[in-house]
């Protein structure tokens, strides 16, 4: 289980870093309209929270990959 | 175990089949882990040529890492990645997000350097410069300082808790945490001026993101260098998995001279190995004890080997002691070992197509980057058409188009700019033509262009803005369009 968590958390951490770099190099969060109005958080806060959002989303992708790669008999034996 | 009779699982009648798995002796037959249980590795400290090189690299990289944020350049920190202001300062260079191409260039250069070094001399990066290795080396040194070397640590860990054990472990934790916090602090000091950060910490002004990231990075350092260690290289590092793609038989790697070493075995110092039918390996197992990833180099090249050369160092000391020639475990190529090449023959085989191609690409990118950086103008310009209106009629029946020009000053002095336009006869600026932009700032300048009535046919006409930096005598030209309504 611990190893599986690492398989999810670590590659998604790396990819979240890449996303962070790509997105915030191009986008200045202060220039954006968020739901129709400006954004009150500081840039640092947006970058930091953005990183965790990216990490969360990429880790879901990793978790799904791991989940879908379970062989049939393992799914039958223990659905979760 | 391999039954396939229908069973009830959560109330659903299904057939559960499973492949027969033999449990290892002594294991719980119900719970068979397919993964090897992790055994803690106690690397023994080692001294020698490769170890000296590693320490030299530890000092070099860490003096730069810990020292650089404190270095001043004029009125500011010499290297500062100011994320809040979206400006990167690297000595005299001020980079905007628009300079992303240079970051890409640096990443490509790093990748090709890694390929080149790996093709020539194996995992130099892993063994000497990777932060994982460097911090593990530092943490191991602190561990040795407080808890002693391998055998003492193993004995103490096996022994029950005592005052001495607790005191030594506490001292180790204190040193580790201090070093980790200092590392986290330094890391954040690259993004927030480190003097500001220091005073924030001094006043315990908690609650900011800087402090969060300091602890985050400190925790990562502590965990990776103190506990994860070789597991990062073995299970987490993608490079470790594909580095063999860069290897060939002329790549320098840490190798055991099987022909000379086998058959291995213990013997008395005076005994003649030939008479006992023994090779040079005395089977002292020191090469395994010093290995930071816990492998036996005598089993051949393995992906776990980070090329640190600790086994070569320790084997040389053993060979000296028993009076045999050094180099039973040595840094050499597979070809050299097979063909018994000498040093100059190995060197001659460094220049091979793979190495030449990597070097050629690397050289080309470095040159392109150097040229681009030296030709880079210390200002940037962006032209936007006003989104509100295409064209309008101004006083005197003139046709007016409105633009916004962003002028970015990528230098640390105030710059003055003169705007002009060309492309249509009679086209002229109706707004301020001279602007000044303060050091490292950017400014949106509203620009109105006017064309005499019937100065051009209806439609869109290409025009060029010329933005001249009067202090530098340099100018850039930006394309746009002027729209004449029907």
Describe this entry's structure for a reader.
The complex is a heterodimer of chains A (80) and B (486). Chain A has 80 residues and is mostly helical. The longest helix of chain A has 26 residues, at 43-68. Chain A has helices at 2-26, 43-68, 72-77. Chain A is elongated, with a radius of gyration of 17 Å. Chain A has one domain (2-72). Chain A contains 3 helices and no strands. The relative contact order of chain A is 0.15. Chain B is elongated, with a radius of gyration of 33 Å. Chain B has 2 domains: 41-376, no CATH class; 379-484, Immunoglobulin-like (Sandwich). Chain B is α+β, with helices and mostly antiparallel strands and 486 residues long. In chain B, strands 10, 11, 12, 14 and 16 form a 5-stranded antiparallel β-sheet that branches. In chain B, strand 5 and strand 6 (87-90) form a beta hairpin. Helices cover 41% and strands 20% of the residues of chain B. The interface between A and B is medium-sized, with 19 and 21 residues.
Characteristic key phrases:
heterodimer; A: 80 residues; mainly alpha; 3 helices; B: alpha+beta; Immunoglobulin-like; 2 domains; 5-stranded antiparallel sheet; 4-stranded antiparallel sheet; 18 strands
Into how many domains do the coordinates of chain A divide?
Answer: 1
Number of DSSP E strands of chain B? 18
**Distance separating the two termini of chain A:** 12 Å
Estimate the helix proportion of chain A, in percent: over 70%
Share in β-strands of chain A: under 5%
Following the backbone from N to C, one meets helices and strands of chain A in this order, namely HHH
Largest two-chain interface: A-B, 19 and 21 residues
Radius of gyration of chain B: 33 Å
Quaternary organization: heterodimer
């Amino acid at each position: 289980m611990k190893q599986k968590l690492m398989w999810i958390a670590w590659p998604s951490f790396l990819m979240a870093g890449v996303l962070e770099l790509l997105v915030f190099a191009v986008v200045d969060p202060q220039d954006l309209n968020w739901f129709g109005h400006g954004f009150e958080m500081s840039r640092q806060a947006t970058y930091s929270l953005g990183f965790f959002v990216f990490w969360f989303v990429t880790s879901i992708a990793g978790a799904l990959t791991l989940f879908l790669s379970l062989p049939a008999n393992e799914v039958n034996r223990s659905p979760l | 175990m391999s039954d396939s009779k229908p069973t009830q699982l959560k109330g659903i009648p299904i057939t559960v089949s499973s492949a027969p798995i033999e449990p290892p002796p002594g294991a719980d037959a119900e719970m068979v882990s397919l993964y090897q249980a992790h055994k803690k590795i106690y690397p023994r400290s080692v001294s020698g040529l490769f170890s000296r090189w590693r320490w030299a690299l530890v000092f070099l990289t860490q003096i730069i890492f810990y020292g650089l944020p404190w270095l001043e350049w004029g009125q500011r920190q010499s290297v500062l990645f100011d994320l809040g202001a979206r400006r990167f300062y690297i000595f005299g260079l001020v980079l905007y997000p628009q300079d992303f191409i240079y970051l890409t260039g640096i990443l490509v250069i790093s990748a090709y350097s890694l390929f080149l070094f790996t093709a020539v001399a194996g995992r130099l990066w892993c063994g000497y410069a990777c932060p994982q290795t460097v911090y593990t080396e530092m943490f191991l040194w602190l561990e040795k300082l407080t808890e002693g070397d391998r055998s003492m640590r193993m004995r103490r860990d096996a022994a029950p808790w005592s005052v001495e054990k607790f005191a030594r472990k506490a001292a180790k934790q204190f040193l580790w945490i201090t070093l980790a916090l200092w590392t986290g602090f330094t890391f954040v000091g690259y993004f927030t001026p480190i003097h500001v950060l220091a005073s924030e910490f001094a006043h315990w002004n908690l609650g900011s993101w800087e402090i969060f990231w300091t602890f985050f990075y400190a925790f990562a350092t502590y965990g990776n260098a103190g506990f994860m260690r070789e597991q990062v290289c073995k299970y987490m590092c993608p490079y470790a998995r594909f580095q063999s793609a860069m290897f060939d038989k002329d790549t320098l790697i840490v190798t055991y001279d099987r022909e000379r070493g086998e058959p291995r075995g213990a013997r008395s110092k005076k005994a003649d190995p030939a008479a006992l039918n023994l090779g040079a390996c005395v089977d002292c197992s020191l090469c395994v004890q010093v290995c930071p990833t816990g492998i036996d180099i005598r089993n051949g090249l393995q992906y776990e080997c980070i090329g640190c050369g600790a086994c070569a160092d320790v084997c040389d000391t053993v060979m000296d002691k028993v009076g045999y020639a050094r180099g039973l475990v040595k840094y050499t190529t597979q070809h050299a070992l097979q063909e018994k090449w000498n040093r100059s023959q190995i060197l001659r085989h460094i220049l091979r197509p793979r190495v030449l191609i990597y070097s050629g690409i690397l050289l080309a990118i470095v040159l392109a980057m150097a040229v681009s950086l030296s030709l880079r103008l210390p200002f940037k310009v962006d032209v936007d058409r006003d989104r509100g209106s295409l064209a309008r009629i101004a006083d005197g029946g003139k046709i007016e188009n409105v633009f916004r020009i962003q002028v970015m000053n990528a230098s640390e002095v105030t710059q003055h700019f003169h705007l002009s336009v060309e492309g249509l006869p009679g086209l002229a600026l109706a707004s301020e033509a001279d602007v000044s932009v303060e050091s490292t700032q950017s400014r949106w300048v509203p620009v109105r262009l006017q064309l005499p009535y019937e100065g051009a046919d209806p439609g869109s006409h290409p025009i060029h803005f010329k933005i001249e930096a009067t202090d530098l005598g340099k100018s850039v030209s930006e394309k746009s369009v002027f729209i004449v309504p029907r």
